[in-house]
Amino acid sequence: MELRRLGRTELKTSVLGYGCGAVGGLMVRGSAADQERAIARAVELGINYFDTAALYGDGESERNLGRVLATLRPDVIVGTKVRLPTPVERGRIGDAVARSLEDSLRRLGRDHVDLFQLHNPITTDGHGTAIGVAAVLDEAVAAFERLRQEGKTRFIGITALGDTAALHTVADARAFDTAQLVYNMLNPTAGNAAPEGMPGQDYGRLLDRTQRADMGVIGIRALAGGALSGSEARHPIGMAAVDPIGSGPSYAADARRARQFEALVREGHAGSVIEAALRFVIANPAIATMLVGTSTLDELEAAGQAVSKGPLPQAALARAADIAAW
Question: Which residues of 5-14 are buried (b: 16+ CB within 10 A; e: fewer)?
């Protein structure tokens, strides 16, 4: 498994990371035996980054990951996240962040994590579940830094969702070590110009900003929550309904657009649309690790096999760009 530098953290992460979220669902709703088999197999494949959050299954993901890691004891990198309750009361962010990490460490059975990340969307002024830029830079950063100084996390990061301008501002501030951001065949705008007529959010080449700040980038939604399979069917233990992030108006619309990429398979660029989608993401060298969540061991094996073939070649990337512009 290829290892890439996670920005200024200097950690070396596997190009394929294991997402322990609710979309795939295995680490939230799967059996204990299947969870242990999946983590063990992931380690055998060379995966060394495991990503969870307090939000996933209301702590179930952290509890299950902690249990399996305590049994297997692999040498891996663990990241988790805090979703602050909103509206955020100014002056109390530090307490909420610290309390969340303490709870996460208890569920994980660890005295520290390698990476602790802000899970709320970030917007200019803050609305809904989002936090405003000023609150992030004025209060959240200080709270995260205190936890780093206390030895409870080695590095700090954000989930780069929210307003594009706000995300650019936070990246430019160089206050966080890492960013999880959306980058896939349906929405490649974190790394490329927006295809004409593309639905969804234009992230304005956010990867340029993270690179200048030497932030490590964790790619999320590589398969658009599963829509890049081209199928609207959901596995029984997966999330029953998946809202798009940054892509189309609905999961069904994303799946329809994904089927256009079957041309890559017909033309011999990849064995499946899923394979093409995963190899598309790792073709961007700014992505240090790409998270894939699974419902089954077979899905994990397929992801490992896709990544083992390496990035899509330039001709396939150009063809994908043509298709995205339809």
Answer: ebbebebebb
Q: What is the rounded average pLDDT of the residues 74-83? A: 97
pTM score above 0.85: yes
Spatial separation of the C-alpha atoms in residues 46 and 212, rounded to whole Å: 29
170 SS3 class: helix
Task: Specify the pLDDT at position 33.
Answer: 97
**Per-residue pLDDT averaged across 52-78, rounded?**
97
CB neighbours of residue 162 within 10 Å: 25
243 CA to centre of own chain: 15
Neighbours of 70 (CB within 10 A): 11
Full 3-state SS string of 54-120: CCHHHHHHHHHHHHHHHHHCCCCEEEEEECCCCCCCCCCHHHHHHHHHHHHHHHHCCCCEEEEEECC
Runs of H (alpha helix) within the chain? 26-29, 32-45, 60-72, 93-108, 133-135, 141-149, 164-173, 206-212, 251-259, 262-266, 273-282, 297-308, 314-324
Percent of the chain having pLDDT more than 90? 90
Position 54 confidence tier, pLDDT thresholds 50, 70, 90: very high
Q: Following DSSP, what letter does each residue of 204-218 receive, concatenated?
A: -SHHHHHHHTT-EEE
Q: Which residues, including other chains, have CB under 8 Å from residue 144's CB and lie 6 or more apart?
A: 97, 116, 118, 153, 156, 176
